[in-house]
């Protein structure tokens, strides 16, 4: 192993050695070493390709941080007289450790086969990986940015006030102040918290006042540090606790109320028993056919055995939604409403570029996309017409009307797509997912991570060929199937079926986010029809102009032939 030398291949090995083609390595893997240091160390392993292995002279391994300069480089050279056979393609080569990698960062490793002819483009392998987070390597109690209160206890007092107790950060982190945000019907309230460490060094309590009985509240607690993780909790202020604690001046005599309550309960039980027995007596007297009895029993069993999905999952699945912004603002609004509904009513964490503009600006669109593709549990691409047909650049025509129409079209596209980097995310995602699907198919891996979906105003032909083997959904009709895919539950089982609230078309219309989704999809369909009508009108005008030009050319040719005959 030696340090990398930026020499040309001919200078390093001679002109004859650089005329052969050597294909890049295969099965590149990155392993993070487990140690107690404050940074990570990585070791890269790979296998050489059997194509051109007899002319292989070594490897170059480069490690680079995404968005940064070169970090490290290692050069592995063989002896001049060494010639490897094809069987050596199963050998595994390992690099020296790359130390000092920052925690919670992304790096790109490139393993390149040497020699490298200039006209050959398959001499390297590129892989992106992420280092361990501070919490994963050292534990949450040693990381200030990852720490958050894990123990939160609530206690309601005599009045409409709640005492909140939470655990303090370890003294080694040096956290001295905390804060709390509470959200209610009247807005949000901020409270700064400074614990008294002389009384209690592990826990702190503070009082929430001015609350309304019978009202739901959502609060957050975090350390008063930059980018601190917030711990959230929900509670409802109980009603009538003040009356129960204070008591009344004229209590009702229990001896008079208890016999009356027992009598009413006895009468209600007799009436309920009579109503329950009445259908049974009628069925004994009626002469019913056996098939009718079987159908009635099966219908009752199906409705009684309704499977409900248990709630309270530890961590909801993370779904990345990719789309094409060049289909207009109506299509973008439909995508945004779909993300809001899925996150609110389908127990799923949705990742959408429209909601993460700050990270996009900091990382760049491609780096942001690569990170989301790795961190997401599922990836859904909303396919549409603009995903295949990219708009052409406006032509420099002298006709003022043409320029005006093109400017209007360009304005609509810019309004729907936003910035150039934003609408390029979906084509890049399709290319990256297509490569990943190809590798997964070749190695027999699971393809359930990736999905394709379309709205009613799109067609099946709008789905790229790369998604030929992934699950396809037409939304919002297939929302129950999408829910089953995301949570890994079966919609039907012997004698039962899965009932998911608000996912049917009637259920969508009953909730605000579902009604907004239906309205946005309808608007997107109307906008698509209007765009198709405008395109058809423009095509008709071009056809008429072509016919007129053809007739004019025929007339000119006829005049020329007549003049030739006269001569």
Just give the CATH class of the largest domain: Alpha Beta
Largest sheet: 5 strands, parallel
Helix content: 25-40%
The figure for the number of domains is: 3
Mean pLDDT: 76
Strand content: 15-25%
Low-confidence stretches: 242-252, 279-313, 390-419
Q: Radius of gyration, Cα only, in angstroms?
A: 35 Å
Distance between the termini: 89 Å
Assign the CATH architecture of the largest domain: 3-Layer(aba) Sandwich
Explain the overall architecture.
With 567 residues, the protein is of the alpha+beta class. It has three domains: 9-132, Immunoglobulin-like; 143-243, Sandwich (Immunoglobulin-like), CATH 2.60.40.10; 318-391 and 408-523, Rossmann fold. It is built from 15 helices and 23 strands. The protein has helices spanning 9-13, 134-138, 241-246, 254-285, 290-304, 329-345, 357-363, 365-375, 385-388, 400-417, 420-423, 425-443, 479-487, 505-510, 512-566, and strands spanning 26-32, 40-47, 58-65, 70-77, 93-94, 98-101, 106-114, 124-130, 152-156, 162-167, 178-184, 187-193, 203-208, 216-223, 231-236, 306-308, 318-322, 349-351, 378-382, 450-454, 471-474, 492-493, 496-499. Helix 6 runs parallel beside helix 10 (400-417), helix 6 runs antiparallel to helix 15 and helix 7 (357-363) packs across helix 8. The protein is extended and about 110 Å long.
